[in-house]
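Mods, move this if it's the wrong board.
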Amino acid sequence: MFLRNGVVNMQVKKGNKIKVDYTGTLEDGTVFDTSKDKLPLEFEVGSGQVIKGFDEAVTGMEKGQEKEINLKPSEAYGDINASLVNKIPRDKLPPEPEPKEGMALLLKSPEGKQFPAKITQVSDKEITIDMNHPLAGKTLKFKIKVVEIAA
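Not the wrong board. Structure tokens:
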């Protein structure tokens, strides 16, 4: 906390529960997520609930402050991991629906955890699926505004 013009201002620090309005875009300006027309995003700073670069960017901000940030893949969803791209025999999939490039699948681990994958290639004998996060390998831009800070 510090004084500015006689008013006590609190800066965001690790452990604070905060609410932010944000818009996330790709380098070409395509919006991939926003809190516009929704409730602000609420999370505990430093708890790992949001991507690393976003968490670090809000630290030190004040209520009402706005900021624009650019996050490299290492600060966001990581680089594309080639080991998460796999080929599966086509006969291991159910016959319907017909697999197509770009189609999303919901896979299940042996422990029962579900995770998304995307079909990137289809042939007569096999399909290629990519289990990387859809935003892996991408530089992300965010406009952030802190709307609430709770101690």
